[in-house]
Each structure stands twice: as C-alpha cells, then as structure tokens.
Amino acid sequence: MIFSALTPTPYPLNLHRQIWNIASSWCCDSVRVPGSARSIPKEADSSNLTKNQSTGAPWISACWLPAKTDNPGRNIVVSGLRGELYTWSDSSQLVRLHTENHGHSMLVFAIRSIPDTDGLFFTIGQDRQVILWIYHCPTDLTFMLRVPTIAAGISALAQSDHGHGPVAAGVADGSILLWRHCSSLQEESSSMNPVTSYWPRGVHGSCVTALAWHPSVRHESLLAYGTESGCVELIDTSKIPKSATQRSKTQPYIFGSTVYRVAWGPPLFTDSGKDQVVETAVSEQDANGSTDSTDTVEQKDPTNKPSSAPKFSSYIYSVCKGKIFCHVGFQRPPLDVTLKFPSVPGISTEDWVNDKRTDIAFLYLENSTRSVDSPSEENEIRECFSCLITVGYRSGSVDVYGLVKSKERASADLIQPLCRISCHTKGVNCLAWSFDRYWLAIGTNESFITVIDVGHVLKQATKPNTSSFRQISTHLAHLEGHGNRITCLDWSPHENGLLLSASFDGTANVWRVAHNDTDSGSTSVANFRAHRLRLFACLWSRQEADLAFSGGELCHLFSWRPSKLAHKEPPNSRRYRPPPVKRVPIDSKDLSVPSVILEPSAIVVTSQEVNRTEYVPEPTYHTDTSIGTSVPLEPPVRSVTTKKPGSGDKRKRPSLCPHFLHRSSLEPSTTDLGFCPPFRLGSRFLQVSHVLNLLKNDVDLPESDCDLLFLLPETNKTRPALVRFLTSEATHHLSAYRATQRSNGLMHLDAYCIILLWLGRTPLVAQTMCSEKHMPFWLLWAVQLAQTTVPAFSASRKSSGDHAEIDLAGEKVKDMTSNSPDVLVSSTLLVCAGRHQEAVDYLFAQDRVKEALLLARLRLGPLYANSIMQKCIARIIERRLCPEVPFARVLHELGAGEWERAQTVLRQATVVSLSRQDMEDEQVASSWVELNILLSCSDNSLPTNAFVRFALSCLVVGFQLPEAQSVIYFQRCQEAVTPSAVLATGTDCFRLLLNTGLRFAAILTGSSQSELYLDMGLHADVADIVQCLRYATLDRQPANRWSACASQLALDFTIYLLSSEKLAPQDQSTEDLNRLEASLRLCSKVNPTNTQQLSDILFHFQTSPELDSPLKRLLSTVLRPSENTDEQVGDICPG
C-alpha cells in the first residue's frame, strides 16, 4: 500500500488523499482534507499569476504509523492546510487531533515516524519548528518536545530595556523571531510556544537588518524594524502574528537600500513652513498584528515651537543611504532630517554635509539615574537636558547633541551640540550608552573599541554663559583584542562596567571597563567562540545577569553564560573558526542507540548545550559498555590532497616595483636625552619630516624615502628621481633572477625587461634577450612594436572597406584580458605601441594603482598625469595600499599646500593609532611634527594650541622616567623652543608648562630648586595664556596612570597660579580651583606618596594672602596632611 502525493501546483485541483494497492494498481480508499483553498483564477488572469502574488501552494503530508496491539488497524496522520493534524483510521472521515496550542502555526510539509518506538513521530513545519508527538489512539495525541530552528542568518537582536519582553531576532529570510528564553532546555521545550515567527513582508521579504523596541512601558509591545530593501515599519507583537502566506500591505515608500539602524527618539524638529507632524500614533485597525498604518496628529503653532504636551513622545528614526530619516506616519514619506541637526563648531560646513551618517543612538535622561561626582550635578544635567543624541559618521567621528529641556536655556535650536569625538578613522557601526554612567562605547570598521566618558562635558554644558562644545580625542578605555571590525555593542544592565561586543572575527567578547578609581585597567573577561562565520549582533539579557545572546550569518542564535566560558580573551585571528567537535563513534549493532537521530540544520541552542560542546578537553575517551574500560580515541588522520597536474608549474609574477611605498621595517620613536629635543623620530614621522623639509627648505629626500616624491606635485626633481628609482628596481629584478634557480626566476627577468621597455631602453632589452636565451613571443612583439613606426599597429579600425587596418595591439590586449589576463604584459604592449594613456587607464582599471601612478608620471604629460595621479593617490589612501607609509594622505596634503588640513589629518590618524598604552614616545613625536607643520602656515595663531599639546605630551613622557632623568628631559625640551614675539602665546604656554614639570621633577628628586617662577619674561598677555591653557583642559578623560595624572595636575596648577596672581578678580574663575582639586584627588588615588610630597612643597612656597586660604582649604579637604607638615618641609628645604 502507498499514498498518492499531492504536490504543489500553481492552483489546487483537488485536496484528496488516496491509498493505492501496488499489486493491482487500484485505489483502495480516499478522503478529502478539510479546509478552504484558494479559488482557481480565471483563464484570463492565470497567465499573470506570479510567485509573489500567490499565497503559497498547498502541501499535504501524511504518515502511516505502525499498528499497535491495543489499536489495530489503520493509523494514518495527515496534515492540514494551516498546520492542523488529522487522523485517518478505518472511517471515511478525518478526525482532527487536539494539539492544545502546541501545534504548528503554518503549513506542515513533513511527518515521519520513529522506528522501534511506541507511537513517536515528529512534524516539520513552515514555521521553522520541529515538534515531537506521541500517538496513543485516533483521539489521543500528546505533545513531547519542541525544537525551534532558524533558516537563515541573524542580522539584528533587540530586547526591551524594561526586561519584560522576549528577545527579537531579525533573520535574513525576512522573518522576525520572538524568543521567550527559558532557564533550561526542558522548561523551554515544554513551554507553550517559546518562539513566535512574524513575516511582516511575507515569505519573500528581504533581510531584517535593524530592530528597536519602544522605550515606553506602555507601548512595550511595539517593535520597529528595517530591512535590506529599505523598508521601515512597525509591528505590534501583542497581536496575533500575520501568516507568512498572507500578502502584506504595500509600502508606499521604500528606500531601495539597506537600513542600518532604526531607533526610537523624541520629537526633535519643527517645520515653520509646513504644519509639521508632531506625533505618530499606532493604528488600531490592523488585527493581524502588523501595524502597517499610523494615525498622525497635526498641530499648528503660530510661534513655530513644539507643543508642550504631545500626545505621543517618540518617533522612529532610521539611517539609510548615509542620511537620517524621521518617520512621521505610514502614509507619508519619511523626512530627511540629516541637515536639520546643527553643524558642529570647528568643522567646515562642506565636510560636515558630505560626511555620510552611519548610526544614531538616543539616551533618555528623565527617568535614569547615572553616576557623577555629586547628586546635585546629576540633577542639573537632567534639568538641563531631556535626551542625548549621538550621530556616527563614515569618517569615524561621533557627534553628541543634547536636547535642551529648560525653557530659559532654549534658543532657536533646541538641539545643542556638546562635543565631537575623533578617536576613529573608519566608519562607525554601533554606538551604545551605558546604563549607569555617561559612558559611550563606539565600534567601527576598526578592530578596537573606545569608551568615552561624556559626564564632564555635560557638567560643563549645564553652566550658563560658558562655551560647552568640546573636541574630544582622548578616551576612558581602549579595548583591543578582536581581529576584525566591530559590528555590535551592548552594555550589561545588571553589573556596572561590563560591555559585550560582536565582531567579524567570529567571536563575541565581554569586557570589564574600569573606572579611574580602580587600580587595574580595562580587561577582557570572557570570549565566546562557538560561531563559525561572522557575527552581526549580540545582546545582553535584560532578565538574567549571567546570560548573553549572539547571532551571525550561519543560522545560529546562541544563548551562553560568560562565567562558564573557558576562553578569556579573543583569538589572534581575523576569521576564527572553532575546531570540529570530536564525536564518539556509534556502533551500528548497539541497540541502545536509536537508529534515527533528529538533527535540524539550524537549532536555537541553549546555554547548557553550548557550555558542554564549546570546549572539548584532550584526549577524548570512549567508554566500552561491555568491558567498562576507557580507551583513548585515535587522533583523526588528515586527508592528503593531491595536486592537480601542472598546478605546481604555475609561476607567479612578482611585484613590478616591490620597493615603491614599502619599507622592510618601521623604527619606533624613542627617548634620547642626548638630542634636543630629547627624542628620536620614528620612521613614520621621519617621512613627514623629510617631505616637510623638502617643501620648506628645498632639501633633497634621503635615498630611502625618494619614492615619497612621487606622491607630491610635479617638480624639476620628479622625473630624474623617477628614472633613478625605476632603474634601481630593474637592477633588483636582474639580481633576483641571477640569484635564484627557481622557475619564478624568469618572472624576475620579465619584470626587468618590462621596466626597461617603460624607460624606453629597447636595445638593452634585445641584448638581454639574446644573452639570456629568453625570447617569449610577447616580448619579441613588444620589442618590435617599440622599434617600428608602422601606423597599422596604433591606428584605429575603420568602419568599412576591403583594406581596413586592424588594431593588432588592441585586439591582443583584449584577448589576453579575457583568456589569460596578464596586466603587466598587456600594458607593456600598449606602451610599446605608443598608447601610453590607454596603458595607464588599463592599469588603473585592473587595480594596479601603484604601477599606473608610476607610468603616468613617466610617460604622460603634466596635464593628464596630474588628474590620474590624483585618482591613484586617492585610491591608495582609501584602500590603505601602503601600510608602511601610513601618512600618505598627510604627504599629499602637504604637497598641495594645505598645511592646516595636513596637520588635522595627522592628528586624527595618530589619535587612533597611538591610543594604546606605552605609545607616549610616539605621541611626543606626533606633536612635534604637527607643530612644525603649523609653523609653516601664514596664520601665526594656528600653532598656539599645538605648543600646548606638545608640552603636555612631553610632561607625560617625562613623568614616566626616573626622577633624575626627568629633570634632564624637561631641560632638553625647554631648549628646543626659543621665546618668540610673533608666537608669544604658544611659546609662553610651552615654557610655563615645562617649567612646572621641571619643578615637579625637582621636588620628587629632593632638590632645593622647587619654587615656581611666573615672572619669566612672558611676551604674551596673561589673559590669552590662561584662555589657551583652559582650552587644553577640555579634551581629556579620567586617567589611571601616574604620568597622565601628574601632567594634568601640572596644567591645572599652572592655570590656577596664573589666574590667581596675574588676572583681575573679574577674570578669575572658581572652575580653576575645582579642576585643581579634582586633579589632586585623582593623583592621590594613583600615587598618594608622590602627591603628598608635591603638595607639601608647592603649597608651602605659595605665600600670597589671596592663595593662602583656598590652598589650605584644599589641603585639608583633599590630602589631609599630618600635623608635622611644616617640620618635614623645613627639613627638605631649609631656609
């Protein structure tokens, strides 16, 4: 007996299930499956029925269960059209089995019984779930186990911050899964429905790339999502999910590009020209659970100010196509609000407008409690701002805005720019605000994470009549360990300072970010390595403290516990792949093992399973049940792959110019007290220094850096230097050919001949071919092309005629490009044919950018060579094709005469590359080179801040040295800068700070020369000096190392002394004393002994009556010196 199969058709013809007798080919019985099907379309419309218009073809499955002794006869389980299950016994009618809300929500396409079991069978449905049942009788069916699965990769994860809702997962097949995670596998499998599937755009929807829950408890069930096709919508998860086979409503506006972020935010903008939609309300009409329409409330206000009491408090904001959009209703197109944000000071409007937006994040402050120095400051922040907005850019910068709350501070723009963070140089992928502090974590296309403390910026912004905007290039923590770009970040809502990250390296990591109070720095706590491909999303559970989720592109959504992981740090790999799990071999004769094993391809794995399978100890033992002894398994034998015939004979052509923009090694910057200034520049900064010396003083570049000349505009030195460089490269290839006996040696000889042909030395090429007996066909033809003057080789093909001339060189290049592409040979043939411009374009199109740049410099005229040079240099910088010359863009800007822009680019690059610890010497070198670049500008006010940065970096390095060496170091630094009336403010700031550092070092060494002298021949106005030094305090984060803390103390102490002794009372500020107090507290926590010694000596010598009372109060509140302080001071410094 067999069943007849009902296969999918464009439209159903019948819904019958039949039983056939094979021997007689006769239908024994048939039954009709209940349920209504789609009506047959008319003949005129049947041809227009497309896959997207259909609601899904019917598929009926059936399974004949083995007969049971207590229930003999026919036991057949049949599926319905919507996931129902029926039983077909001896009667002619189907009897529906009651699944008690445990059944499938969509079509069941497979039913299979498990052999050698008592009525066990499982069903597989279109809702991505596998359910195990036990069949007792035609009316008795018991649910046993549910295994939810995933059919595509996970692109986004989200859970409500209130901790009541499920985990939402955006899947690449267009579905959204809601997973109500349970504490154990048994509890999860026995729950009614742990996973609910939503298909908001149908079964053919695009990948869901962004998710965001509503921030209000009242509307906690609202979930916003964005897709890869550019659709942004809203679903209500409290309603019954729409079936995947039902058609979704038409989206009136689709971006057509990937939506990278959706976020809920407050009303930010009003439109004075139009009656702006103020709020968006959820429609109550859609009963299928997909909120595809919204009601909008329009409010007219003659004063063009937002309503004080809006009915709803949140919009949906999305990031797509490099812009930020605000969605005001389903029936309205989204509003482009990218340029409605105020531009930040210090950045050109053109750069700000053209920079692509990549992310946006909101932080509501009204009901949050975050840690700052005092509760009063926290109240001031919340009274001033209701929300913080962060915007990430493709350039790596992040802007932080504050939504002004108090009416007296509100201006024409309610959004106030607070700071710009420049700690990265690649596109921002994710921004995450901490739950307990004003910490912002930033993840970009770079492999490290930075954490910024914005609390001090907010405290400064709450003060009236102060300039609150800051440029921040420092950080609280620099988390390095991942091998690839960062894709997602999430803070723990349960424990302070725990940060979860996901990366393209295939791992998820937990970091502990330390506050400045702690002695230990930020470290890695746990690393999860069960994924096999790239990770796109991670999430910290809002319900359990020791539970995290992660998902990637390999159809897995893992839940795992960080405290149970074996690995503590990320692997040192760009693409980590976990080793295969060793499986115990199963004896087929062992009857205790079931013969059928259910193993879905993509199962939602719980933490217990991951903790068991992620780490496998060595060796693995297999227990023989018959003997009871443990026998170690034999190690797996690696299969030996045989090479294809001729695969080893293939020769790889070497680089034509291996030394162009390439360095064998890069020397770091080091401290050297025998120099003035007391350090040696590293290789990277020497390159910039040499080019700067060439442009300013016309000093030739050293031989090792002569290739940097080809990144600069054309001069009378460029062409001779290029000829010399190419000649040396040709000599290198000839030496390599004569030194090697490998088959690749002939490739070096070919490269030697190619360079000579580019240089026009055809006779030397012919002589080499004869002497070395190396005459390939292409080389013979190239020599002939270079020596002949027949125009047929370079003429274009005529459109008609019997004697049309044929472009042999062009046809040969096309043939070589399509069949066996050899870019260098093809371009050389074009060069020998006199078609230099085509050769350069061909090299550039084939991504041989360096060769295209050199050939354009060598063979083309200045006009066209300049344009192709700009394109080549731009691609070299964009794709980072010269890692040993990291400041290629800086050199290019210097050559163009953009001194200020070159300094900005250099500063931004060094902030990112030198943000790790133990890079202070490189930071001093960078500050020195930046200062020299700005000294070349015509504007004498530009180097002022560069002098201060150079002085502060010198202080950090000096305080790291032993006390005796630090004194010499500060003296050498002072000798490097001479006083100048033109640059008076900058040089005076530098001398004052170095003088303070010198006195600090003298105190720590026990020297008697400990008093600070402010009357040291200052050339600038004291008010300008104090203002410049105060500006330097804006860009710094809390430090936990003595050298950084001491440098901040030196800066704050210098500012306080200058303002207290040299400024008028109306120009003094209490903030100077507050900063000094904060610096003293920080230094006393890091190194109390040195701080006590510094404070005793310094405050003892300040005898001014105006300073006596504040300093004594500062001593008593911060350091609490002992009663015999005066005796100790007298012993150290007599008299």
From TrEMBL:
InterPro entries: Gemin-5 (IPR052640), WD40/YVTN_repeat-like_dom_sf (IPR015943), WD40_repeat_dom_sf (IPR036322), WD40_rpt (IPR001680). One of its GO terms (cellular component) is nucleus. Residues 282-296 have a biased composition (Polar residues). GO terms for molecular function: mRNA 3'-UTR binding. WD repeats lie at residues 479-513. The keyword tRNA-binding does not apply. Transmembrane segments: none annotated. One of its GO terms (biological process) is spliceosomal snRNP assembly. Keywords: WD repeat. This is Gem associated protein 5. It comes from the Eukaryota. Residues 279-309, 618-656 are annotated as: Disordered. Pfam families: WD40.
